[in-house]
Write a structure and sequence with these properties.
Oligomer: single chain
Number of helices: 4
CATH topology: Immunoglobulin-like
Order of helices and strands: HHHHEEEEEEEEEE
Largest sheet: 4 strands, mixed
Number of domains: 1
Strand order of the largest sheet: 1-4-10-9
Amino acid sequence: MATNRRLLAIAVGAVVCLAGCDYVRLLRPSVLKQLNPDVVRLLNELPAVDHPNEEIVARLFAHGGLSRAREGADGGMYDEVRVPKNEFIWRPAIIRMPHAGELELRFTNEDQTLHMALLPSDGQRQLLELPMHQSGTVRIRLDQPGLYWFGCPVSNHAGRGMLGLVIVPGEVPSDAKLDRPPQKRPRG
C-alpha cells in the first residue's frame, strides 16, 4: 500500500512539473503517433536555437529531420543528405556541426528529377548538380557560428520544401549581432 502511494505521489509530482513545460502538449496521443525519430531529434535540438529562428526552423523542417555531422580523424566533419523519391525535401534537412570548420557533404538524389544543392561557404557559394539517381560530394567551410541556409535552385524546388539548414554552434561576437528592437511575432 505504501509503495502504491509513493508511485502515485511520484506520478502527480511529474504531472505538476510537466504542466509548466511548453512541450507537454506534444504528449497528446494524436501528436505522439506522428513523431518519428527524425522529428524527435529535431524537437530536442530546437530549444538551443534562438527564439525567432526556432519558429521558422520548426515549421520548415519537421519532416526532413536533423543530423549531427560526425568528425573524422583528419579533423574534418562529414554527413550525408538524400533526396527521397517524389518528396522534394532534403533528408536530413538540418545538419548540426560540432564546431566551425570544414564540412564534407555527400548528396544522393533518389528522385527522378534533376536537383542542385546551393550551399554557403565562408562568404561564397558552392553549387552541386545532382542528376537523377546520382550522387555527388561538396566541401564547404563555415568558420563562424550561425545558421546557414541551403536549397535547390531548380524551378520552384526550394518553395516546395527543398530548403536546408546547417547550424554551427558557438557564441556570435557582439559586434556581429543585429542591433534591432524586438519584433512582433505572428501567433499561430
